[in-house]
Amino acid sequence: MKFGFIEQHRGSHSVGKMARMLGVSRSGYYAWRSRAACKRAVEQEELVGRINTIQEEVKYRYGSPRVTVELRRRGFVVGENRVARLMSLQGLGARLKKRFRSTTDSSHSLSVAENLLNRGFEVGKANEAWVSDITYIPTAEGWVYLCTVMDLYSRRIVGWSMSSRMKSELVVQALMMATMRRRPPKGLIFHSDRGSQYCSHVFRERTQSLGIRQSMSREGDCWDNAPAESFFKTLKGELYGHRAFRSRQEACTVLFEYIWSGHLLTRDVGVAAEQRCVCAGEGGSECF
Known about the structure:
This protein is α/β, with parallel strands linked by helices and 288 residues long. The protein folds into two domains: 2-90, no CATH class; 129-284, Ribonuclease H-like superfamily/Ribonuclease H (Nucleotidyltransferase, domain 5). It is built from ten helices and five strands; from the N terminus they run H-H-H-H-H-E-E-E-H-E-H-H-E-H-H. It has a five-stranded mixed beta sheet, sandwiched between helices. Strand 1 (129-137) and strand 2 form a beta hairpin. Helix 4 (64-73) packs across helix 5 and helix 6 packs parallel to helix 8 (201-209).
């Protein structure tokens, strides 16, 4: 298109000269340019509206890459750079979590397992190596603790539990959920930090009875358990960084829905999806 050619080269050549060479008028070019600007403005307004709709649906969990993917899925072809720029200008970015202190209590005299995993995060099959960690979540009623077990092959959560207390039962419940769902073979590596919950006698006895080999990170080295740390960073940033839970039960319910919805929890073939909260309360069976 002639007007398009003029627009493309107007920075290096005179508009009047190009108009004469192409046999069009300057006034015609500027009228076209005005209409094009209005069209871009309308398209941009529509795009901002679509971005806002997506962020409202996901409670402002997404950054520009995931928003771009969702826009394309809905039929709106757009580049990520443009989406990122508009999200920044309109204040539509992900609302990230606040920083929280470590939950690892390694100041104990319990036995510590060797680092069998040694950052070997790429495994060749399912149920070859699992990683686990604990994080804590603020509510108006106090902290609640979440323990997860991730299969390194699929990077999916295969077991989890929540409790108002960070005791050994928390990690035992998460382990038992994972083993009941997956029925792993003997020799599976279960990697964690050196927290007292993972070093406890009850947890070590349970892993030994199941033929599971425990592996633990080096002291103070979070990179030795990077996949588990990364999962919690994503969860906090996407799910509750922008909100405050009114109760422990609300936190439990929302987290359960987030995981069980398929976002990060594998629905294993032949395992019924029991729609209830999995908590490690008194006796390991009660919710908050």
